[in-house]
C-alpha cells in the first residue's frame, strides 16, 4: 500500500530536480550549439584567446597592464590536473552554463518558462557571441558570474558576495571592471541597505581587484589616447551605433561580428526583442515591495552607466581621450562596448518577465504555460541570432599545435638561466596556416616560463579605409621596438636589456638572424628559429 505514494513522491522529487536543473541544462545545450567544432580535439586560438599546451605555472611577468592576472595562473594550475585543451573547453562550456543558470535564478516566481527565457537570452546574445569571437574568455567569466553576484549583493553579506564574485575574480582585470559597478549599485540601492553593507561589498570588490590593480599601478605602463578611436563601439547593423548597442552588439572589431548579424530582418527582430525586454523591465519597477526585485534599481543604474560609457566612446570620444591623457588608469574605458554586460543581464531579466506575461494562464483555461507560445518565446533569442551557431559557422575551431612549437617550448623552458625572450616578427598578431588562417595573438606570450617581449602595439583598420596605430603599453617592449626599427646588429643591445633568446617565425627569419651576430642557433625548423644570445 505504501509503494504507490512512495513512487509518486520519488517522481515529484525527480521532477523538482529536473526543473531546478533545466536552466543549467539549457545553457549546456546552447554552449554545445554555439561552440560546435571548437569542442573537437585541440586548442581554440582566436584573437585574445591564446592557450598553450603545458602552460607555465608562474605569475605573469610585469610589462603592460596585467590583463591576464590571475586568469593565466589559474588556467595553468587547472592544466596540471587536466590537459590544457580540456580545461579550455570546460571553461567555454562553463561560461554558458553558469550564465544561463544565473539569469534564471534572478527571475522572480517559480514558473519554469520565464526562468528558461532569461537563461536562453543571457546565454545566447550578440554580446556573448562577439566577445567569444574576440577570444575574451576571461571577461566572459565575469559576464557568466554577474547574475550570481547581483543576486548576492541584493541579499547582503560579504561571504555570499565573495563566493558569487569568484568567476569574475578568476577572470581578473576586465571581468571585475564589468562586474563591480553592478555589485556596488545593487548594494547601494537594495531595501534595508546600510553603509556597513555597502562598505562590505566594496571591501570584497577591492580585495578581488588587488592581484591586478597593484601590478597595474606599479607597471609603468602607458595608454595611448588614440585607442579611444580604435576601440569605440561601432554600428554592426542598419540602426547605427546606438541601435547596435541597444541590441547588445556594437563591438569595435568587424571580425568579431556574428555571420549575418547586420542583415536587416534579424537585426530588426533582435533590436525589437531587446527593446521590448527593456520596456517590461522598466514597467516592473513601478511595483513596490515584493512586486519589485531587490536588485531592480541597482541593475538598472549599472546598465545605464555601462551604456553611457559605450555611447561616450562612440559619440564623445574627446572626453575619454582627455581622461586617458590625464591618467592612464582610465584606459579600460576605451572598449566601451564591454560594459554592456549589466545591460545584457537587464535584457535577460526583462525577457523573463515578458515570457511570464505572454505565457500566463488566462481565465477559463487550465493553469499552465501555453506551450506553443512558450516554444516561440524560448527559441526567439536563437532565431534572431542564428549566425552564432556552430562556432559562428566555423570561425571558432580547435586545432593542434605543430610538434615544432612543442619542441621549442620544451627547449626554452628547460633552460634555468634567466633572461627574456623576444618574439619576432615584431607584430602582435599572427595568422598561421595550421590555424586555418584565423588571427590570433602571438602564442609565444603564453608558452614560456620567462618574460616574453612582444609588440603589444595595435594597428586597427578604420571604417573609412584608414589605419590607426595604437602605441603599446609595455615600456621595455617599446624600447626593443625602437631597436628593431633601426639598422645594424642587435646582439649587444638585446643582451644589455636582459634578453637571452630570440624566437624567429615567418618568411623574414633570415633578415632578422643576420642582425644577431654571435648568437647560437639552438633550433632551426620549418617554421621557427631560436637563437640564444
Top keywords for this entry?
single chain; 533 residues; alpha+beta; 5-stranded mixed beta sheet; two-stranded antiparallel sheet; 23 helices; 55% helix
Structure summary, number of beta strands: 11
Count of alpha/pi helices: 23
Distance between the termini: 85 Å
- Rounded Rg: 25 Å
Share in β-strands: 5-15%
Q: Biggest sheet, in brief?
A: 5 strands, mixed
User: What topology, given as strand order, has the largest sheet?
Assistant: 6-3-9-11-10
Shape label: globular
Which stretches of 5+ consecutive residues score pLDDT under 50? none
In short:
This protein is α+β, with helices and mostly antiparallel strands.
What does this 3D model show about the protein?
This protein has helices spanning 3-35, 71-78, 84-106, 112-123, 126-133, 137-155, 158-164, 166-171, 173-189, 195-218, 227-231, 240-246, 264-284, 296-315, 317-326, 341-358, 371-383, 389-394, 403-413, 444-447, 475-485, 491-496, 509-513, and strands at residues 43-44, 398-399, 420-424, 429-430, 440-441, 452-453, 458-461, 467-470, 499-505, 520-524, 528-532. The protein is globular, with a radius of gyration of 25 Å. The mean pLDDT is 91. It has 533 residues and is of the alpha+beta class. The chain has 23 helices and 11 strands. The longest helix is centred in the first third of the chain and has 33 residues, at 3-35.
